[in-house]
Design goal:
This protein is mainly alpha-helical. It folds into three domains: about 60 residues, no CATH class; about 90 residues, DNA polymerase, domain 1; about 130 residues, Intergrase catalytic core (hpI Integrase, Chain A). The protein is about 55% helix and about 10% strand. The protein has a three-stranded antiparallel beta sheet, covered by helices on one side. It has a three-stranded antiparallel beta sheet with strand order 4-5-6, with no helix packed on it. Helix 3 packs across helix 4 and helix 6 packs antiparallel against helix 7. The protein starts with a strand and ends with a helix.
């Protein structure tokens, strides 16, 4: 963790790397006016150090893998090796791999040799997942996690080719984009503000507002630290748990004003403190379900915390290019973002039809 100190009237940034303490003279006078600039420099150095540490750790992992002489290894050994790489991924990714592997072992036992795994085993694995009544998206996710392990084995020459391919997967289902109607959203935000006021904890209301104004997934939102919010450059540093990617999302005027007026406490937090300490996705979900029950919203799975993200995306799809919305959502491919534009296209066509019908009826 990098820190800011003062020496000879100047700001100094210190950090540790490979067991050695590094010192950088910012050459900025130790004044209140310069503190924001130095804090920004410190955060950028800290990010670079973390990236450097991950790179070094990954090189060590690759070295340990290359030193293993036996090549015809078991599924258990393959899982052990792949988990070394997974140390560098998010906890949610590791949890999904664990669930996928538990299911895969029902088809292919741990003592089975990786060289003996066939395409037929992959078919049986998909069939097992389908029998569990999982959604197509979940089936594809678990399958891709196992597929990654086999690609890892091919890359490190434990296998010549992977027995898993995407031909056996069910098609991606295209679901309609459900967003909040304005009246419902107003009721939800008002009720959440009342709940927060009664419990003397404004966090719940603030969380729902930030979900709406950033389009973030709840897990990514609650991982934001004070140092991730850059008021000077009006952006927020985000670690996307689903893809293990880092981005900086711009603060819209609405978001900037909301944080500046409703979340002033952030300025008093230490840089490594979470802005929503003590909150988990499960806790937010429980409170949101109670709020829906209070408002008489009976659709159990239609309106969820994800609906805030969908409402955010649909809102900006009306005015921004698809590449811009894809960036805001952290999508690697704009194809993932197209669904929001399909909804807007439908609305536009409907509006044109209504206008035509109105003009036609007047004839």
């Amino acid at each position: 963790m990098a820190s800011i100190t003062r020496k000879n009237g100047m700001y100094i940034i210190q950090y540790w790397l490979t067991g050695k303490r590094k010192t950088i003279n910012t050459k900025l006078e130790a004044t209140e006016a310069n503190l924001d600039k130095v804090t920004l420099m410190k955060n950028r150095i800290q990010d670079k150090v973390e990236i450097k540490k991950r790179d070094m750790k990954y090189r060590d992992i690759l070295h340990s893998v290359s030193n293993i002489e036996e090549k015809d290894i078991t599924i258990a050994k393959a899982e052990e090796l792949f988990k070394l790489k997974l140390v560098l991924t998010s906890k949610s990714f590791q949890d999904r791999f664990r669930v996928a592997m538990n299911n895969f072992n029902k088809i292919v036992p741990k003592e089975f040799k990786v060289s003996k795994v066939t395409f037929e085993h992959s078919l049986m694995f998909v069939r097992l997942l389908m029998e569990q009544k999982l959604s197509n998206a979940s089936i594809r996710t678990y399958y891709e996690h196992i597929k990654m392990m086999f690609q890892f084995l091919v890359k490190h020459k434990y296998l010549q080719t992977s027995p898993l391919n995407s031909d056996v997967l069910p098609r991606k289902s295209k679901k309609a984009i459900i967003t909040f109607e304005k009246n419902m959203l107003d009721d939800i935000l008002l009720a959440s503000k009342e709940i927060s006021s009664q419990s003397k904890d404004e966090s719940f209301y603030n969380i729902l507002m930030l979900l709406l104004l950033t389009g973030l997934r709840p897990k990514d939102l609650i991982e934001i630290k004070a140092s991730d919010i850059n008021f000077a450059e009006r952006n927020v540093h985000i670690n996307i748990s689903k893809t293990d990617k880092e981005i900086h999302i711009p603060m819209s005027q609405k978001l900037f004003e909301f944080i500046s007026t409703e979340m002033k406490y952030i300025a008093e937090l230490d840089s490594d403190q979470l802005i929503f300490p003590g909150y988990t996705v499960s806790r937010i979900g429980r409170r949101f379900r109670r709020l829906k029950s209070k408002l008489g919203i009976k659709e159990k799975y239609v309106f969820t915390l994800k609906t805030f993200r969908k409402s955010f995306a649909t809102h900006y799809a009306r005015g921004l290019d698809i590449q811009d919305v894809a960036y805001l959502l952290g999508h690697d491919e704009v194809a993932t973002t197209k669904a929001y534009y399909s909804k807007i296209l439908t609305e536009n066509v409907r509006s044109k039809m209504d206008n035509f019908d109105e003009r036609y009826d007047k004839k």
